[in-house]
Amino acid sequence: MHLKNLKLLVGIHLILSILYSCSNKSDDGIDDEIMNTPILPYEAEGLVKIENGSGGLIASLESGDRFGRDHDKIGDVNGDGVIDIVVGARSDDDGGVDAGAVYILFMNSDGTVQNNQKISMLEGGFNETLNAGNFFGYGVAGIGDYDADGIPDIAVSSPVPPNNALYIIHLNADGTVKDYVKNQNIIANGLTAIGDINGDNRIDLVACNPGSDDGGTQRGAIDILFLNTASQVIYANTVTISSTQGGFGVGLEDGDQFGGREVAMLNDIDNDGNKELAVGAFMSDGGKGAIWILSLNASTFNVESKIKIAEGLNGFTDKLTDELNPNGTYGANFGHAMCASGDIDGDGIMDLITGANQQNEGWAYVLYLNADKTVKSFSRINNTEGGFNLTLDSEERFSRSISCVGDLKGDGSVAINFGGGAGGTGTLYTLFFRPQ
Hints:
Layout: H1 3-23, H2 32-35, E1 42-50, E2 67-75, E3 84-89, E4 101-107, E5 113-119, E6 139-144, E7 153-158, E8 165-171, E9 177-184, E10 190-195, E11 204-209, E12 221-225, E13 239-241, E14 258-267, E15 275-281, H3 284-287, E16 290-296, E17 303-309, E18 334-342, E19 351-356, E20 363-369, E21 375-381, E22 402-406, E23 414-420, E24 427-435
Antiparallel strand pairs: 1-24, 2-3, 3-4, 4-5, 6-7, 7-8, 8-9, 10-11, 11-12, 12-13, 14-15, 15-16, 16-17, 18-19, 19-20, 20-21, 22-23, 23-24
């Protein structure tokens, strides 16, 4: 071939290569694939899947037990230097159909289970008679060392009448029951430890009652519970927040199910002297769901002000489904569960992890908050987003329960637990985040 023709062909090939390369770039020359990959304000450091026979869990779970229905960190129960976890299995059949149970998981620092202790009518030294359908373990919370014996304790709810009660269970170091206090006439379809907000050196609790008819049909309510040194609820000091109580005012509608399954204490993110509490209303807006961030008066714990986070409102721009779900409910159920995660994006403001457990396979959201309590930005965590390479079933309802374990590994990472496994025995996913 003539040298001139060869040079011409090489030149044409070079031009075509440049054009092809530019066709895959945006106007500023950045590759579209890179453009479409969000930069996360955390590093995803893997996950551990905990279910029967996986992640170190050896238990006699059965289909429908709903292991992982609620969960929380307890503290170091067995004295090995690693945080331990309590997990509810509210439909366990020990002693009666759906009587319920909880599991104390003794953890390894890598997120796997070292061993576990079951607490039910038949195991763990819990000498209590529960009703069939009592759902013991619907709500669980780590409450610190309530009886001052050096071992952290737990709170567990059984919300179904006539035995609707809150149990304060004082643990032995092996996870069995040392003794317990039964607080009657409390409905808690979710339970959250919110720290010591009244300054009496005991961790306080929020009992979630999304089915409350206070102010209208299933508008929902929460009760802020304070307990004395004998682990008894001081009923006279309970603060109820609903359509008609606690200073909430207008905003809730019939069927909203305000209260959800967990709340999240965000502390004072706007630095006005009042603590912020995030509360879900997962059936708001036709089942799409919503979250209310309440500013609580520092003395009365009534609502001083509030904002609603929902689709297209206060910075949350994602599209949520309102379609019929396989279980007969409607919508994404955004705000069904949540936890305070600490400052994931490093801007000095507490962030909030929540979920829309009926959005496809179940989507989790990290909401990066502004000081004014609106959403600055958010990250999704699901089968294709978030960096954890999840392989969830199509109707797993990932994120139907959420809790923050904290620095389980002892290396500065943050472990967050997410419940899933709907349709099976139940699954707990521990995801490790490293804030940037």
